[in-house]
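Q: Start with the shorter request: fold the first protein.
A: Done. Sequence, then structure:
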Amino acid sequence: MKLPILCLALLAGCATQPPLTTETAPQAAACPAVLPAGTRCFSGQDSAGAPYMAALPAQWNGTLVVHAHGGPTLGAPKLARSVEDLERWSIVVKAGYAWVGSAFRQGGVAVRSAAEDTERVRRIFVQHVAKPELTILHGQSWGGNVAAVGASMYTQGKPYDAVLLTSGVLAGGRTYDFRLDLRVIYQALCGNHPRPDEVQYPLGIGLPAGSKLANEEVRRRANECLALDKPAAQRTPEQQRKVQVIVDALKIPAASIASHLTWATFHFQDIAHVRTGGRSPFGNTGAVYRGSSEVEKLNGVVARYPADPEAQARLAADTEPDGRIPVPVLTVHGIGDPTVFVEVHDTFRRTMERAGTAGHLVQTFTADDAHSYLSDSAYPTLLAALSDWARSGTKPTPEQIATRCRDFEPTYGKNCRFRPEYRPQPLATRITPRD
């Protein structure tokens, strides 16, 4: 057994990891209708309380894809989350890969905990479902952060042969700095989150502990001020002016303002009150907002908050990838992604360079302005390229991957949009630097 060695080397990842023999076998489950005929599905709850789903296609190619989902979801874990993930990533099973994914044992921004759950569900699959010839760790969105951290936590015995990061949050907690900018700019323009007659609080904590404010109310307030639920032509001139100020300051489309505002409310609340001792790791001291004259006026009126150093350290310890990934890593990201900025890949490349593992990394980009899903042809292309790299040791180029995608179009549709010439700019060109 290699587990004791793993725990000695990776105490942070093993403290809550039960021995493999304590995990009960999953039960046969109904497969989502979108999966190919003959697929066998399984579901269960691991020893830490995380629900999970697994799928084994009839024509299995011998490779297992272990999925870390995005979000993060808030609230208690539910099996429905894993079912939804399996449906969204049904293309993986259609392409002949086995799939397993955990709903994680807790909601909220807990990266290392989610990485533990992901490794646990891999072990369950290997023990109780089938033994793969090759295992690929796949992280999507926030799950990209989970996978990038988990791939460094679990290296003894090589549980993962390769890593696929799609639309990933790959700059750790710093990825979210601009959401504090959104909170302070929104409040300067709208003044209703919080309202003047409500408890005032530092916006970096999202909400006070115990607040009962609902997601729907945040969106209602945003529509009250900005009419985000209406086309631009139906907004008042003042509403459209405020929307444009936010768009210019943060370089995000108007359609994503409401989502980022809710994440900057409830995810920040989870981080501050559950993860960092009631203090905020987010600050905007020294941030100078650039753009239009309207944007630059904000510098004199927005609230300013210092980031708490201890809170920053706690968040960094949980979320920052260290780049020490000993196996091939392939990434893909839509250039126009409005949720996770493509510039995080410049940060991630530098992270792997510092770790001495840049030779393990290939980054690809697509001409997509989507986040949650790119195209049916893209994912089989990436999985095939990554599988071949893991087996042969021959590193593919972005150009080769773009060309290879065309081979999958007759089966999965003419939707290849790889742009091998693209190189992301530093994250500081997208998110306002701060002290």
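Q: Next, the second protein, separately.
A: Sequence, then structure:
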Amino acid sequence: MIELTLPTMTCGHCVKTVTAVVQQVDALATLQIDLPTHQVRIESTRPADEFERALAEEGYAKA
């Protein structure tokens, strides 16, 4: 389980973007998003740094 805090994830559009980025990295990944706390939990066999890098490129760097 990969747990990230993304402070710039603040709205529904952000949730859609983060979801799309995660699915681009791993189409089989499952994720849970808690928008009020800016938490993202990703279940995947891919390394965390792949998700972190892809999310940062879209403006969602981890805290």
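Q: Describe the second briefly.
A: The chain has one domain: 2-57. The radius of gyration is 10 Å.
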